Amino acid sequence: MTQPFVARAAIGTFLVVNLAVIHAMFLIAGPPAHNVFGQAGRLLGLYLAFTMTVQALLVARLPLLDRAIGMDRLTGWHRWTGFAVFWLAVLHPAFVILGFARYDRVSFTATALTLSKQLPVLLGLIAVALIVLVVALSVRFARRRLSYEAWHAVHLLLYLVLVLGIVHQAYEGTAFTLNVLTRIYWWGLWAFALGALLTYRLIVPLIRNSRHRMRVAAVVPESDDVVSVHVTGRDLHLLGAKAGQFFLWRFPGHNRWWQVNPFSLSAAPNGRSLRLTAKGVGTTSAGLRDLPIGARVFAEGPYGSFTIDNRGGTATLLIAGGIGVTPIRSLLEDPNLSGDVTVLYRVRSGADAVLLGELRNLAREKGARLHVLSGRTSAANQPFTPPNLHALVPDITSRDVYVCGPAALTGAVLDSLRRLKVPARQIHAELFRLAP
Questions:
Q1: In the chain, what are the domain boundaries?
Q2: Which residues contact residue 413 at a Cβ distance below 8 angstroms, ignoring those fewer than 6 apart?
Q3: What was the pLDDT predicted at 363?
Q4: 213-303, superfamily in CATH?
Q5: Quick one: pLDDT at residue 76?
Q6: Measured between alpha carbons, how far is 221 from 277 in angstroms, rounded to an integer?
Q7: Coil, strand, or helix at residue 336?
Q8: Are 158 and 134 a contacting pair, CB within 8 Å?
Q9: Taking the domain 311-430, which CATH number applies?
Q10: Beta sheet of 316-321, edge-to-edge order
Q11: pTM score over 0.85
Q12: Given 22, 77, 105, 397, which residue has the most CB atoms within 10 angstroms?
């Protein structure tokens, strides 16, 4: 029984059991809802509260789920859970207000104004407004116009939403206070979710960084807009970092505390140092070349299942696009990578092929085949269509395929792999998506 299967089974069981308990609580609670609208609003409130605990667990980045499911897939779940929270947060108060309005025979607006004068209700409505704001800034149209740092800072409001939601539940959650068992269950569930969040997003990172005391050892420009940062510290082998993984990097004293970026390791960890390589596209990444030697480093991680550990066979295809070469380069260096290895590196021009010299040296040492695919994409230059990809790697269906690059490239490769009928278990993608 594989680790991903066990993890999915555990997640499914967790959801089914808790939803069953929530429905039992709803049925036992009975009144005071006076009509179908009030009843619907109360049930939606239970769904909302539970969905918020699920979101907290997804944001906690539990190591077990990260290793078994992968951070990219978990981030996708986080996104869809976020939209579920949004709709529940809108519908729950709407149905509750409508229920009271119908019962009291007054207008919806008048009822909303009356209820909002009660502090617990007001806190809940503020939480709803913050959720709407965060979701509005997360849709693709708005997201493309925000820097990663600004988007991340806005999402920190979700922690305030959690606090407001808990306070609101404490005063308004009649279904949670039916008896001792419901109280123990409900607040135990929240204690588990918040405990996981605090442990893995605050306590563990603080302990690790206090132990390892990481500092900038060297800053090496790789091109006009790409730079590598070498980081050293104490007992780095205890981090358990692997080639292909990434950290969340902060540089206290050089950047503000909320400026954080997920950068992959661009070299296989050796227990003595870590290296990240980034392209200057945001405030944090663009400022890396100005980091002083000896600057403090705060790293949260390692994260990601984009590692050789998940390889099922002995033949491997590594596909990199642009700056997505960083985890691919570290995978090629991994001592555990053996067998038949082919590397495809897609760039616009030779000048954009950062770390190419290192790739060539590693390919020579590993006996791997390296193909640099250059030129702008056009009707005559589409190396990742199914026929062209199969021509480059005829035995692609028997290989584990690792792909990392811009969204358009990664999407095209994944589509071609599906068309070529490469088994899903052999496909590994790093999409650089991350929940805040």
A1: 3-208, 213-303, 311-430
A2: 319, 384, 389, 401, 403, 405
A3: 95
A4: Translation factors (2.40.30.10)
A5: 83
A6: 9
A7: coil
A8: yes
A9: 3.40.50.80
A10: 369-373, 341-346, 316-321, 400-404, 427-430
A11: no
A12: 22
